[in-house]
Amino acid sequence: MKTYKVALVPGDGIGKEVVPAGRQVLEALAAADNTFRFDFEHFDWGGDYYRLHGAMMPADGLEMLKSKDAILFGSAGDPHIPDHITLWGLRLKICQGLDQYANVRPTRILPGIDAPLKRCRPEDLDWVIVRENTEGEYSGAGGRVHQGLPIEVATDLSVMTRAGVERIQRFGFKLAQSRQRKLLTLITKSNAQRHAMVMWDEVAAEVAKDFPDVKWDKELVDAATVRMVNRPASLDTIVATNLHADILSDLAAALAGSIGIGPTANINPERQFPSMFEPIHGSAFDIMGKGLANPVGTFWSAVMMLEHLGEPDAARRLMQAIEHVTANTRLHTRDLGGAATTVEVTSAVCAEVAVTARSPLATA
Ligand code: ATP
User: Fold this and answer.
1) Of 255, 282, 301, which one is at a domain's C-terminal end?
2) Mean pLDDT of 284-309
3) What integer is the mean pLDDT of 219-234?
């Protein structure tokens, strides 16, 4: 029997509720499947760790993660610690340190979800946003000079390397090629940003030559927001820089019904380091500890983790179970207009996983 070593990093806020829920569902799936198992290790990094140790994770934290097959992450954020410390000290440290340069965010309107675009049918919205995850606007380069004085200067330098741009675009084209519509939209802003974004466009034109079967176009990031709302069916795979994709993927999540549903994979495509899977939502301290957190984003992230680990059948079964549960509005959490709790949704998905494992249709 195969054993997958998975690091659990719940982090802060509702991460501490949804990651244990994700573990429960993965354990139910493994028990029903009986061909693989998980060896979970829990890491208590985040805001509480910072209060005790002055850092969000230990100095050798990345080393501890390197021996794992995958990481299931919750969120980083604490009302009493500045956001740039929580983000850079944990999530970005892991993404950059383990070279997880491809951030992949699928968006669909799941069964039973009442999405806000009234003219959009569920089949019109089926996107994957590919976000550059290690450089660009979030490179961390820059600084502050004359701090606190009237002449203070502050810079955040966007760094785009040809190698970094080419690898993420190649990843995007490959992904587009693997999808039914073979359609890719490159998000740009080369009208206003006349150096790095012009290179970004040029590299795309070069990479595209290796993917003649992929139909592609370019869209300015501002126009892309309008297109996502007015013509969702014209989009399929979307490739964008770190900042642009950060914003577009939150819009995508809202258009699909709730920020509590969307998953993310932070992928190191060469598999030199483990990849990390997490819901797109943050720590949501306003609902923490109340049992209101929607665990579906974490469950869908677990589906992406199973796909990455090479367990496509288990991934499909878990996705079927999730969709079966979202289709039942009595099992909707408050963000979806329902009254179900995290525990109720988790138990329902676990029960469904057990049923589908026994059903002959599960392997069809
Ligand atoms: P952070 O600062 O860590 O990014 P945040 O609380 O500012 O976190 P989000 O967590 O992204 O931002 O979410 C914004 C709001 O959406 C939350 O305050 C919460 O009310 C709601 N929300 C987010 N995730 C969920 C979820 N999984 N289930 C239910 N509601 C959620």
Assistant:
1) 255
2) 97
3) 97
